[in-house]
Amino acid sequence: MSTPCKLTVYQIADVSTGHVTAEDGKKMGQDTHAIAQVNGGYGTIFYTSPAAVEHMVKVGYSAAMLSIVQHAQAQGIPYIRFDSDGAIIPDWPTFEW
């Protein structure tokens, strides 16, 4: 690998799990639909594609969670990382769980 290469870089929003419901938190841990998320050691990463949002609606994620994902999608951000250490967004609803 002596030849330098240009890697593709994607934006990812960093959002606190405090902005999703406890039920969403459970779903995050159990939802293995690859188009919607990738579980990692630190938080859960969701893809914001229309197909991923469609899946999230079908699975029953909350309106609060869907709003965050759709907000990122509208800004052209393809991924969201939900984590307990993620950013608290002013004026957005928060949930204790």
Task: Write up this protein.
The chain has helices at 22-30, 50-59, 63-74, and strands at residues 12-16, 37-39, 44-47, 79-83. Helix 2 packs antiparallel against helix 3 (63-74). It is of the alpha+beta class. Strands 1-4-3-2 form a 4-stranded mixed beta sheet, with helices on one face. The mean pLDDT is 87.
Q: What is the structure about, briefly put?
A:
The protein is an alpha+beta fold and about 100 residues long.
Strand content: 15-25%
Largest sheet: 4 strands, mixed
Count every beta strand, where a strand is a DSSP E run of 2 or more residues.
4
Basic shape: globular
Q: Order of strands across the widest beta sheet?
A: 1-4-3-2
Radius of gyration: 14 Å
Residue share in helix: 25-40%
N/C terminus separation: 47 Å
SSE arrangement, N to C: EHEEHHE
**Average pLDDT for all residues:** 87
The class by helix and strand makeup works out as alpha+beta
Helical stretch tally: 3
List segments where confidence is low: pLDDT < 50 over at least 5 consecutive residues.
none
Task: Describe how the helices and strands are arranged.
Elements (H helix, E strand, L loop, with lengths): L11 E5 L5 H9 L6 E3 L4 E4 L2 H10 L3 H12 L4 E5 L14
Parallel strand pairs: 1-4
Antiparallel strand pairs: 2-3, 3-4
Helix pairs in contact: 2-3
Keywords:
alpha+beta, globular, four-stranded mixed beta sheet, 97 residues, 18% strand
